[in-house]
Design brief:
Layout: H1 3-22, E1 38-46, E2 57-62, E3 74-75, E4 78-80, E5 85-94, E6 99-100, H2 101-107, E7 112-117, E8 127-131, E9 142-147, E10 155-164, E11 187-198
Parallel strand pairs: 4-11
Antiparallel strand pairs: 1-2, 1-5, 2-3, 5-6, 5-9, 7-10, 8-9, 10-11
């Protein structure tokens, strides 16, 4: 091999080494959270025996960029009646990818959980919530909301929070109004606040 070929191969080896040392071998961290653009809360009034009364009605929040990353979600005001109980179900959707996220959350029920916070549920609450998901799991896609008979306030904030990859066995994590939810670990997939008015 002549000198020119040796020099060429040495230069090529040095260039390859320099290029590979500049290339990161670290994997890019993935965000396993869900992109949620639309949330719909469906209320169905129920009597003392849990039977449906009248027609159901919906309230929604949406942001085409994603509720967690968008700048101005459109949020409807929840209107409920004093002393009434409602079965409430939650549907979440990703309009960017055309995906119904509700079923994915249900399929990964061991990794997800909704919390119900804000002045509507904590402090001097005007609403109470209990999980009522199928199979007795603690998830929050379905539950029962009861409005105080004589609430101290007629309006409040209803904060809906969805946590992902939390430790559901953490003490207190099974409380739907657990204000220290972050201590159970995980990440927030959804954090949206609805105004709520009781009449």
């Amino acid at each position: 091999m002549n000198t020119n070929n040796k020099l060429y191969l040495i230069a090529l080896a040095v260039a390859s080494f320099a290029f590979s040392s500049c290339t990161s071998e670290d994997p890019v961290p993935e965000n396993d959270g869900e992109l949620i653009t639309d949330v719909t809360l469906t209320f169905q009034e129920i009597d003392a025996n849990g039977n449906a009364v009248g027609a159901s009605f919906d309230f929604s929040a949406s942001d085409s960029e994603g509720i967690e990353i968008g700048s101005a979600p459109e949020v409807e005001t929840i209107k409920l009646t004093k002393g009434k109980s409602y079965e409430m179900s939650i549907d979440v959707y990703n309009s960017v990818a055309g995906e119904d996220i509700t079923e994915e959350i249900r399929a990964e029920e061991d990794e997800h959980q909704f919390y119900f916070l804000g002045s509507a549920f904590v402090g001097t609450p005007i609403l109470s919530y209990s999980y009522d998901d199928e199979g007795g799991v603690i998830l929050g896609l379905k539950g029962v909301i009861t409005v105080e008979e004589t609430p101290a306030l007629n309006n409040a904030n209803f904060q809906l929070l969805l946590r992902h990859a939390l430790d559901k066995n953490y003490p207190g994590a099974d409380n739907p109004n657990f204000q220290n939810y972050a201590q159970a670990g995980g990440e927030t997939d959804l954090d949206i606040t609805f105004p709520v008015v009781v009449e």
